[in-house]
Design brief:
132 residues; alpha+beta; NADH Oxidase; three-stranded antiparallel beta sheet; binds flavin mononucleotide
Amino acid sequence: MESAKKGLTDFFRSELEALRKRIGEEDMGSSLWSCGVMEQAPVLVMVWNAGENDWDSEVHSVAAAIQNMLLKAYGLGLGSLWIADIYYAIEPLTEYLGKPWKLMAAVTLGWPAEDPEAPPRKTVEEVAEFRS
Ligand SMILES: Cc1cc2nc3c(=O)[nH]c(=O)nc-3n(C[C@H](O)[C@H](O)[C@H](O)COP(=O)(O)O)c2cc1C
């Protein structure tokens, strides 16, 4: 039996291939790469906003939930990738999955193949402005 993940990634791949024919690879950002990661990773989590209250701030809650997922995964020694590139086929994917909620992101999880060094941290002054 075909796995749910394979069904979804095959569908996403075919949508991206159709898009490539229409607009060309150079306008598709990292979407083809991201699809490859989704195909390769053993676990794929699709993240929804169930929109229970219809508040604009619900996207903050969903983003925080994703970040918590990534931190937990890291704590367990897993690798992860937050994938917004599903937006390159958001309408077909939403229809394919058939849920009444707003599709927000995908998250891949798996044992990391490498342990890259963290890039240098920016200073607080580089990322924040303080006023008195
Ligand atoms: C909201 C969000 C969406 C992302 N979407 C993608 C994606 O679709 N494909 C991908 O390869 N990486 C994606 N990433 C990962 C980033 O490209 C980057 O690898 C990651 O944020 C780590 O780099 P940083 O520490 O500079 O943020 C996303 C990250 C964030 C925060």
